[in-house]
Specification:
564 residues; alpha+beta; Immunoglobulin-like; 5-stranded antiparallel sheet; 12 helices; Rossmann fold; 2 domains; 6-stranded mixed sheet
Length: 564
């Protein structure tokens, strides 16, 4: 992630605003956590018509009273306006901010083979209008050893469809993991055959070369998976500060818990076959580097799932691997080197990872299929029939992950929901919304915020860009303090780009204090915060927020610009 450098040029008052304002007003924070729950029968069909009395939520093992309850059903009727929930448990009209869908399609181009990627793209294109209703948003991200946000969040179906179809470009992905795996195996086979067939060949040396090549490739697979997990975490952050039903659809073909394990299993089998057919020339060799494949992705994938849960995102893991590839020997494969057992290890290792991530976030791993229509039909059904349950998290001295368990009293009901929740402070929630404002244009503002930018000035390899953020003083809450009136606001700043990169969020507290007799004059003026951003050259999106320290009202502004 890029680091944002912001230097203040004019600070309204010293940053002792926190202590002084706390003497005037105590902010009581009331937060409600919403949990999306899918309930099906044993055949996978949605169960509708349940009431709040049918559900129980346990946080860290303790039963929590429900404060909100909505049932979302698939309907072609226009969305209703916000209504107050009925105390009787009857289902009211569902508020727009609960019903709105935000879907991020994330395609791992590096692991998916070309013809399978084309099938995934066709299926998403076919179901796009069914997955998204008017007012919903979606984005498209692609992984090909680096992250690219191909399309930022938009509700324009034509724009989305163009971005999705572009993923089928056969020149976009380059060699897939499977092609590179086949290549390293072929090189090993060729070198071994040359060493065995030549009187002066050294099979033992060729074996050592094979082990070295496989070790290097296993290291590369592990590094790629770690970077992919980090990219998923980055994309999940783009959904943190928005409301509604949030889903990440991941399409990939290779994400085993132990990268390279199947590769070395194949190599051991290959050496064993050669040893049987070339006695005296090929012996056993200790694969001393195989211990390196014990490196696990469990902690990395756990971070991804917990990040999704913290941001209220359900993950659907779409397995785009060919379920029959290499599991059965080809009729023409007469030479040593065919090992269905290693192919099975590779395939099931990925499925286990997909299932673990999906289960933790309340989603499903859609696996083992040659038709992706059925997988996306399952996603569409989940989006059209689920329950939104709300409760107030218990106060706790130390914030962090809290376990969640949702139970349904209906006999035979199968429940899916996220397994954990992170209680975030008001400051963390605002930071999330500032990041979301980089990638979404639909955030609501309670305060009128004006953002202006000056011309950039080159400073070495970077560009210094002046910014000015202002709100009308008439919109700021102020309280009497002796002969003065006092108030304050916090300024949040973050920068991102179209590739999904983003800076950390910078926060500055500002205190406003004037004599009470001067308040009327102050109210006629804007309150202005100025700063300078030091940025790399290129396209950027600037996101700012101002939060009234006393009322907690917030306003947002964003600007897309080029730093030259």
């Amino acid at each position: 992630m890029r680091k944002l450098t912001a230097t203040l040029l004019i600070a309204l008052y010293a940053a002792t605003a926190n202590a002084q304002l706390e003497q005037l007003a105590e902010s009581i924070e009331v937060r409600v956590t919403n949990i999306d729950v899918v309930v099906t029968d044993r055949a996978g069909h949605p169960i509708t018509g349940l009431t709040r009395e049918d559900f129980e939520i346990y946080e860290d093992g303790k039963l929590q009273p429900l404060t909100n309850f909505y049932e979302i059903r698939d309907t072609t009727e226009p969305r209703a306006a916000n209504t107050t929930i009925a105390t009787s448990g009857a289902v009211p009209d569902v508020p727009n901010d609960v019903r709105r869908r935000r879907i991020l399609f994330f395609v791992d181009n590096y692991s998916i083979e070309m013809f399978r990627r084309a099938s995934v793209v066709r299926a998403i294109d076919k179901f796009l209008d069914k997955l998204l209703q008017p007012g919903d948003e979606a984005a498209v991200a692609i992984w090909n050893r680096d992250l690219k946000l191909r399309q930022t969040f938009t509700s324009d179906h034509a724009t989305l469809r163009a971005a999705i179809l572009s993923l089928g470009d056969t020149t976009a992905a380059g060699p897939s993991i499977q092609l590179l795996t086949d290549r390293v195996k072929d090189i090993c086979r060729q070198n071994m055959q040359i060493a065995i067939s030549s009187p002066k060949g050294n099979p033992r040396e060729a074996q050592r070369d094979c082990v070295a090549d496989f070790t290097h490739f296993a290291d590369d697979l592990y590094a790629n998976e770690r970077e992919l997990a980090a990219a998923l975490t980055t994309m999940l952050a783009t959904l943190a500060g928005v409301d509604g039903k949030k889903v990440l659809v991941f399409a990939g073909a290779h994400l085993p818990d132990h990268p390279g394990e199947a590769l070395f299993q194949w190599l051991e089998s290959y050496f064993a076959q050669l040893a049987l057919s070339n006695r005296g020339r090929v012996g056993e060799i200790a694969l001393t580097n195989r211990s390196r494949v014990s490196r696990s992705m469990t902690s990395n994938l756990d971070i991804v799932a917990r990040k999704a849960n913290a941001n209220g995102v359900t993950m659907y893991m779409l397995d785009a691997a060919d379920p029959s590839r290499d599991l059965m020997p080809d009729a023409s494969a007469t030479e040593a080197g065919t090992d269905p057992a290693s192919a099975f290890t590779n395939y099931t290792g990925t499925l286990a990872s997909f299932n673990a991530v999906a289960r933790m976030t309340g989603g499903i791993a859609l696996t083992g299929t040659n038709t992706f229509d059925a997988a996306l039909e399952t996603l569409s059904r989940d989006l059209g029939s689920y329950y939104s349950l709300g409760y107030r998290p218990a106060a706790r001295a130390k914030e962090g992950d809290r376990s969640l368990v949702v139970k349904c009293r209906r006999p035979g009901a199968q429940v899916r929901s996220r397994h954990s929740y992170v209680s975030k402070t008001a400051d963390e929630q605002t930071s999330d919304r500032v990041i979301a404002n980089i990638f979404h244009t639909s955030l609501k503002s309670e305060l009128p915020v004006t953002l202006t930018m000056g011309a950039g000035v080159r400073e070495g390899r970077k560009v210094k860009v002046p910014i000015s953020v202002s709100i009308p003083a008439s919109s700021l809450t102020m309280l009497p303090d002796g002969s003065d009136v006092v108030g304050g606001f916090d300024v949040y700043v973050a920068v991102g780009d179209s590739s999904g990169g983003m800076s950390s969020v910078t926060k500055k507290a500002q205190l406003v204090r004037v004599p009470a007799v001067a308040e009327a004059g102050l109210r006629k003026q804007p309150l202005v915060f100025t700063a300078q951003l030091l940025l790399r050259k290129g396209e950027h999106i600037l996101s700012v927020a101002i939060v009234d320290r006393l009322s907690n009202a917030a306003g947002f502004a964003r600007e897309q610009f080029t730093a030259r």
